[in-house]
Amino acid sequence: MNILVTGGAGYIGSHTVVELQNAGHNVVVIDNLSNSKAKSLNRVTEITGKKVDFFEIDIRDFNALDSLLNKYKFDCCIHFAGLKAVGESVQKPLEYYDNNVCGTVTLLRALNKHNCKNIIFSSSACVYGNPEIIPITENCPKGNCTNPYGATKSMIEDIMMDLYKSDSNWNIVLLRYFNPIGAHQSGKIGENPNGIPNNLMPYITQVAVGKRDELSVFGNDYDTHDGTGVRDYIHVIDLARGHVCALNAIKENCGLEIFNLGTGHGYSVLDVVNAFEKVNGLKIPYVIKPRRAGDVPVCYADASKAEKILKWHAEFNLEDMCRDSWNWQKNNPNGYGD
Ligand code: NAD
Ligand code: UD1
User: Fold this and answer.
1) Quick check: 300 and 262 in contact, CB under 8 A?
2) Rounded to the nearest 10 degrees, how much is the dihedral formed by the CA atoms of 30, 35, 38, 40?
3) pLDDT, tens only, 69-98
4) Ligand sitting nearest the alpha carbon of 123
5) How far is 337 from 236, CA to CA, in rounded Å?
6) Is the CB of 259 under 6 A from ligand 2?
7) Which residue's CA is minimally distant from atom 18 of ligand 2?
8) Whose CA is nearest to atom 8 of ligand 1?
9) Which residues of the chain form beta strands (DSSP E)?
10) Which candidate, 89, 112, 91, 113, places its Cα nearest to that of 101?
11) Is 75 in the pocket of ligand 2 (CB under 6 A)?
12) 102 CA distance to ligand 2 centroid (A)?
């Protein structure tokens, strides 16, 4: 298939481009490079041996999208482009609503105009808020998002649902990601956060590489086996392959479908620290700090719908994720900035 990948220079996008090319799809990437480097796509080529067609385009630029869609005929768009820093979204809500929500509406208008009515969207488990059911199924009601970032994901899902109601020629797959970590086994591509990482694994790897002194563990008084927060960490390669499987659903005219992409296993912060230390033979100093505002105690997926319908399940375990995250970080201490 001919696939348009928005945000394809980013962390999940670049790993997905690898899996798409390996599966024989033709890929065109657009990205405004606001949170990534084009170098990631050179690295993709080093891995796959295939060139990536790349255009520096902002998804809010209708005319640029229109020209691109005049030039190429796409079977499906995989839409990763968006801003994703929770804390920053609280400081700059208008930027987040403009970039994520207005950007997606502009992209959908352009795709609609060119009759490309197939899209896979990067949603998030954060749409469940503090989940009512654990493990979380897709039928679990959406909850209150505690920040503008989460609100943009929930709004975009609603916009896509309304679009589908208005025109059932669309095929729309909403993928709710749990916590992607890890990196390609080659160590050539990985997560490249700007500034101080907000998320657990990049913080751990930066402690391991000597950029940060110690990890802060946010709360050890949750109702979990060791008191620290529990999440469903998923290897980014498994996540990327989930998109390749979702293309089959699109091909079969699935209509609108929602899938959780997670492993179905919950691990605590200290489980992750212990696994990282064991598999990599390193020590990660940490201190216990108060709970982080907006955090939920426990969040992990029931991923059986994706298994049943997409024939997809996660294959990598926590040790694999810890090994591959470290392999990327130690080979690229400054990310793509070297
Ligand atoms: P990322 O920041 O590495 O990738 C996003 C890419 O989109 C970047 O390359 C950025 O430059 C690009 N982009 C942003 N705004 C754009 C615009 N207006 N026009 C064109 N390009 C633009 O993030 P990621 O971790 O790869 O996440 C990809 C998607 O998955 C995002 O939508 C994110 O919200 C979603 N998601 C991520 C996680 C996670 O933990 N990483 C979890 C759930 C959902
Ligand atoms: C965060 C986002 C969420 C987003 C998800 C995937 C917040 C509040 N939520 O989820 O919207 O969809 O990333 O990108 O940011 N932790 C520490 N110390 C740290 C960092 C994290 O103890 O330095 C703990 C957290 O309290 C949590 C766990 O590690 O229990 C995972 O945190 P993180 O990686 O930030 O992911 P989420 O909070 O699940």
Assistant:
1) yes
2) -110
3) 999 999 999 999 999 999 999 999 999 999
4) 1
5) 21
6) no
7) 217
8) 10
9) 2-6, 26-31, 53-56, 76-79, 118-124, 171-177, 179-181, 215-218, 230-231, 233-235, 256-261, 267-268, 286-289, 298-299
10) 89
11) no
12) 26
- For ligand 2, say whether the CB of 200 is within 6 Å of any of its atoms: yes
The amino acid present at 260, given as its one-letter code, is N
Distance CA 249, CA 75 (A): 13
DSSP conformation class of 126: G
- Whole-number Å distance between alpha carbons of 137 and 114: 34
Predicted model pTM: 0.98
- For ligand 2, is residue 218 a contact (CB within 6 Å)? yes
Name which of 251, 249, 256, 238 is nearest 324 in CA terms. 238
Residues forming the active site: 149
Query: Residue with the nearest Cα to atom 16 of ligand 2?
Result: 200
Q: Which amino acid is at 12?
A: I
Per-residue buried b or exposed e for 57-82, using 16+ beta carbons within 10 Å of the residue's own CB:
bbbbbeebbeebbeeeebebbbbbbb
CA angle 120–193–51, rounded 5-degree value: 55
Report DSSP letters for 198-266, one per residue. Answer: -SHHHHHHHHHTTSSS-EEEE-S-SSSSSSS-EE-EEEHHHHHHHHHHHHHHHHTT--EEEEEES-S--
Separation of alpha carbons 7 and 186, rounded Å: 21
The residue type of 254 is C
Q: Which residues does 51 contact at the CB level (< 8 Å), separation at least 6?
A: 45
Question: Per residue in 106-153, pLDDT tens?
Answer: 999 999 999 999 999 999 999 999 998 899 999 999 988 889 999 999
Structure tokens at 40: 């990631």
Q: In this structure, what are the phi and psi dihedrals at residue 284, rounded to the nearest 5 degrees?
A: -115, 100
Strands (DSSP E) found in 142-203: 171-177, 179-181
Strand, helix or coil at 281?
Answer: coil
Atom 26 (ligand 2) nearest CA = 218
C-alpha–C-alpha distance, residues 36 and 60, integer Å: 17
132: exposed, middle or buried (Cβ count in 10 Å: 0-12, 13-18, 19+): exposed
Query: Which has the closest alpha carbon to 199: 164, 234, 166?
Result: 234
